[in-house]
Design goal:
This protein is α+β, with helices and mostly antiparallel strands and 94 residues long. Helix content is 27%, strand content 11%. It has two domains: 51 residues, no CATH class; 39 residues, no CATH class.
Amino acid sequence: MSNVTKLPTAARRKVKNPKKPLDAERDNIEFLSVDTYLQVPVSRVLEQAKPFDLKRVLILGELEDGNLYMSFSDDDRAELLWMIENAKREIMDQ
């Protein structure tokens, strides 16, 4: 889909034994504009979304206890479901 912005930090698969991520606060780290197949820190994904002029946001996450976390900026449930369905299609097409 041409209207979906792919963030360079979007993890595409789980890593069985992920290495400890580099400290994102270090000055000598350069973030590359490429897709990654590795697990990345949640804070980095959220930080990299900030510069985009997002019309609405839907955040899905997994809590430490395995439960689902969900938060959204829009009260239109139909629009949220549309976003989820389009995201599902994007994930399946990759």
